[in-house]
Amino acid sequence: MSGEIITLPALCAALGVVCLMFASPFTFYFAKRKISALGIKCNNFDALKLLKDVNVVALPYNRVLTGGEFFITDLVPEGLNQPTLLAMAAGAETDAENILGRLIYDTAVHRKLRLQPSTNFKELPGRGVEATVSGSAVRVGNLNWLESLNVSISANLRTKIDQLLVKGKTVLIVATGRVARGLIALKDDADDAAKKFLGEVKLKKIESLVLTSQPKKMTSWIKKNFSADHIRTNLTPEDKAREVQIFRAKGKIVAMIGTDAHDLPALDAADISFSMSFDAKVDFEISKLEDFLAAVQISKDVSKTLRRNRLIATALFAVIIFCAIIFFVGMEAFI
Questions:
Q1: Where in the chain is the domain with CATH 3.40.1110.10?
Q2: What integer pLDDT is reported at residue 25 of this predicted model?
């Protein structure tokens, strides 16, 4: 009889410990079901715990803040005609995998332009492409990259570049050797859902960091159309990662949203990573920007639930132990 009485407090204590042990697993089980129901794939539940503390969300400009439906708006040749400029660029972009290069190539094919065969193709993420077309080195890329190669760009073309950039257009320079032969401007309209998203992010007291390879002249357009807190331009994929690391060095918890392989360095550099519409080893896979805010809210709910469950489990543990001790003392006195 005495042995059974002594065993009772131990059994009660074990019951309290079990309550504490299962407080977290049950909470995360239901959080996982809730996230899945929203169409969000969570690959790292440790990231879900941290997500509630995020105070900076970093994201690319093109195809995230914009709709992703590019179209060519301007062909500005210099010393040649528009079809020749487009054919020259398309020849260099024949093997391109980036969305702009594919659009240029497909447009030239659609217009039934004669394209010269190309060799020695090379694609430089965040910069442009280069290839040998009919024996000439042809480059198609952004202003920053071609300036770094000392390509000669006339005053007339520079003026036109500025005019196009302030209208929110993406400008690619077409050059042969060290001379710019013209410009191709493309437009990707601002996405209303992205505007709403950045407004909601600001209300949640989360800072937004826009990372883009676009020239600095594009900043005014981005500011005009989006309520972004920070805008960084002229960035290569490695530069984007560095910007993320700078914010982390300031003590910020940074979540990065990426859309393609060019964003991988920044995704790796962030505290928490999200991918949209492409396969990558990330913490969360989402289909739309609103999913980010939904995941943040679930993280906050999980944190509150965990605190409440642990408090209840601890209180239950204390009550069980107290009752067991009272019962034990009473039984000892009875014996």
A1: 71-187
A2: 66
